[in-house]
Amino acid sequence: MSILYYTLNNVVFTNFALYSTASIAKMMCMGAFTLTKRFSQDAFANPEDLTLARHHSSVVTTNDPDVERVRRNHLNDIENIVPFVLVGFFYVATNPNRDIAYWHFRIFFISRLIHTVCYQMPLPQPGRFLACAVGYLTTLSMALQVLFSTRP
Amino acid sequence: MSILYYTLNNVVFTNFALYSTASIAKMMCMGAFTLTKRFSQDAFANPEDLTLARHHSSVVTTNDPDVERVRRNHLNDIENIVPFVLVGFFYVATNPNRDIAYWHFRIFFISRLIHTVCYQMPLPQPGRFLACAVGYLTTLSMALQVLFSTRP
Amino acid sequence: MSILYYTLNNVVFTNFALYSTASIAKMMCMGAFTLTKRFSQDAFANPEDLTLARHHSSVVTTNDPDVERVRRNHLNDIENIVPFVLVGFFYVATNPNRDIAYWHFRIFFISRLIHTVCYQMPLPQPGRFLACAVGYLTTLSMALQVLFSTRP
Fold this sequence. Notes:
Three copies of one chain form a homotrimer. By secondary structure, chain A is mainly α. Chain A has a single domain, classed as Four Helix Bundle (Hemerythrin (Met), subunit A), CATH 1.20.120. Chain A has helices at 11-41, 65-93, 98-120, 127-150. The model of chain A has no long low-confidence stretch (mean pLDDT 92). Chains in contact: A-B, A-C, B-C. Chains A, B, C: Homotrimer; The trimer binds only one molecule of glutathione. Chains A, B, C: One of its GO terms (molecular function) is glutathione transferase activity. Chains A, B, C: It comes from Adineta steineri. Chains A, B, C: The chain crosses the membrane at residues 16-35, 129-148.
């Protein structure tokens, strides 16, 4: 009676793969974005990186506001997107309803896009807080279903 | 001769899903805990967050001791729980002994609970160090078994 | 027509498990490395940790250059190795060509070893930047193939 969950023949898994990979790609963009901010602000964290700076008078800095804003966004992504993918992987094995699963994945991804826009514009609070909370609750909802399905 | 490892019919996978999801949920709690600390300490990292502060005289701060303690705990969780889940996923495919696997998962989860208590009380060292080391060695033990099973 | 991808009978998965676990083990070493630096520099981040310091006059510090260099390296690993493993997991389900997949995994792992050497020696830039970029593009290449295979 075993069913193959982890194949692209399973539409739940295919949607999970799509939105997870899109979320991770979004997270990886923050790394490239940090780099562009470091160059535009001449704000490098290591002495050997100063050879890349435009101004020879640049010094090592780890508290440039623009760079740190992107880095906090990146860390928040790691704190939220990585748990989503890991919990979602187990959630797929609970054989969830296909539409409910789809909306979990889609809502999470959109919440992270909105979170990033709120953080980088920046938009007034509580916009960023609410966007983060929606994604957080989506992951928690999947986690509860996994815990319910695997309880001893 | 292929066996389906990643289904809830496999008790090793079911236990892995249970303890992994519980560990990730514990890690996610640190995010909510950080938020409560930010509010109780009026310690916000972004200028736009100050509208949420109780005192209008609040300024941006990134070095409040109480907030930073929770954040270090959170980062330590990411550094340890994420590798546990990722390595554990491969470990399940090595078809480990069911009881040995179970104790790996259970010991890891308990070590992280103890680590968090030690960090947030805080309890005297080396309590926190030992709790972290136990979880670290559990993951390393699984990693060695994966490397042994997949070596060229 | 479903094929079992996530078993050690699938050479793509076996190689993925090998290089992912090796990369995660490398990442975990940064945690132990941070600890040795904290002891050698007497640079502890928590008041209760000072009982472990050699000098009774030690104070809490979170900006020791040697410790922070290892910690930045560790965080960069998290930002790059975790996405590699998560995206790689979906990539395996796209049934990639065995040799192309193998080189993705191998090149990524080697790029992270070179990145670590560049960071800790440290070697002159752009060595570290290029090593990081190679691993980043490897993960991005897998992500694009996943998105292409799972697009609606």
